[in-house]
Each structure stands twice: as structure tokens, then as C-alpha cells.
Amino acid sequence: MSDQPVIYAIGDVHGERMRLWELHEKIVAHHLKFFRSAPLKLIHLGDYVDRGPDSAGVIELLMSLEKRTNIQIVNLRGNHEQMMSEAHGEFANDFHLHWLTNGGDATVESYITRGQDKPPETHLEWIKSLPTMHLEHDRKLAFVHAGVDPRTFPYCGEDIHMWTRSRRFFDTRHWENGPLAEWTVVHGHTPTDNFKPELDGQPTQRFNLDTGAVYGGRLTAGVFAPGVETVDFLFS
User: Fold this and answer.
1) Which of 12, 63, 140, 231 could form a disulfide with 188 if both were Cys (CB 3.0 to 4.6 A apart)?
2) Residue 57: pLDDT band with limits 50, 70, 90
3) Tell me, what's the pLDDT at 92?
4) Phi, psi of 44 (to 5 degrees)
5) How far is residue 100's CA from residue 83's CA, in Å, rounded to a whole number?
6) Under DSSP, is residue 123 helix (H, G, I), strand (E, B) or coil?
7) Mean pLDDT of 136-150
């Protein structure tokens, strides 16, 4: 195997801190068993907060992981991080209710249980700093929360990255002869109906890893190993 990392991409967490912890443990065990000599790269696809029991704990866990030197970490911003950020920004009054009614109430509660009446500035600044897309150019892999625009990729903009549910993106037949023709996109944002990863294209060009962890489904990691055609999945 080359010195390229084995990438473990993790779908929407939504406050499920313990399940994320368990999935991280499974990832490490899997990596040591099958790819011990290769670098390990974790890519979290966004939506760490809202709806679930411990959004504050998820943020703390991800922030602590970024300090590790033995693994590579990429944390992307999802639409729920965006809503949380806007609810505490310059125009908070315009966005706060929208955030609370889309699962932000559970996030507030997770901070209250820690003795805080609101997210600390360190968490809010961290959220603002998160990128909305990560590209592995040499492997033609794009990681994003919601998706991209097949017509303008990779210049489609942050709102598309965090919010899109466009049919043009979901049907990879629309990617032919465009800028996405040779790329594979890995995303979350739209929970799959059967709580299983969704694969589209022949060969697969789109992986949806939002398997509804906060809705009774599973938290999923896709394993993207260099030189390996098939993608394995780990669950918690």
C-alpha cells in the first residue's frame, strides 16, 4: 500500500456522542487489523449537533481529536452547525427560533447539563472555522456534508455544500461529461430510508453515509482505502 491514508468517513452524528466514541474504537481496531502500516484519516461529514442527547460532548470530542498527532482529522461543517452559528451571530434574533425548532433545543439542553446556559465562544469559533468541503485530488474523492452542484463543481459554494438535495446531484447520470465525471462524492445530510448506506452509479460515484443514527438507525463510517476498489462499512 502507498503512503496515502486510509480514509474513514463518518456520517451525521446529531449529538450521539457515545455512538461516535464506539465507532471511533471500531475504526481504530479495523485499521490496526487491516492497514496497520498506512496513515489513518478521519473525515466527519458534518451535523454533529442538534436532536440527539449530547451535542456539546460531540463538539468537545472532535475538538480534542484535532489535537492528536498520530491521525489526520478533517471536520466539515454541516447545515446544523451553520444554523447553530447563525443563532449566536450578529443577527441571532432572526435565526434563533429556526435553530431551536430544528433540534437546537436538544443542543441547548446538552450545555445546560454541563452548567452552561449557552455554547462557549470556543465552540462557536470552532464551528465557524470548519470547511464545507474536502477534496482528495489525487484520488478524485470529494467529501461534503450535503452534496455539490454537478454543473459548477468544485466552485458550487458553501450553501450547496451544506444544504442541497438537488435531484441533479442525487442522480449520477447527470454527472456524465461534466466536471464530476471522474469524481466520487461522499456525503450525508439526507437520511437513507433503510438505515443503510446509499450507493449510486456504476461504478459507484456517490455514497450517502447518513444512515439515520438519531432516528433509530446507525452511525456509519465508510472505509476508503487507496488501491482497494470496494468500500467497507463500519457501524455503531
Assistant:
1) 12
2) very high
3) 85
4) -95, 130
5) 9
6) helix
7) 98
Question: Cβ distance 185 to 139 under 8 Å?
Answer: no
Closest of 87, 86, 88, 84 to residue 107, by C-alpha: 84
DSSP helix/strand/coil, 42 = strand
The C-alpha cell at 1 is 500500500
Residues 6+ apart with CB under 8 A from 130: 46, 75, 76, 77, 81
Nearest to 51 by CA among 10, 17, 75, 22: 17
| DSSP letters spanning 143-193 | EESS---TTTTT-S-HHHHHH---HHHHSGGGGTTSTTTT-EEEE-SS--T
Number of Cβ within a 10 Å radius of residue 137:
9
Q: Write out the DSSP string of 43-104.
A: EE-S--SSSSS-HHHHHHHHHHHTT-SSSEEEE---HHHHHHHHTTSTTHHHHHHHHIIIII
Percent helix, percent strand, percent coil in the chain, to nearest 5:
35, 15, 45
Regarding pTM above 0.70, the answer is: yes
Query: Residue 183 has which C-alpha cell?
Result: 469524481
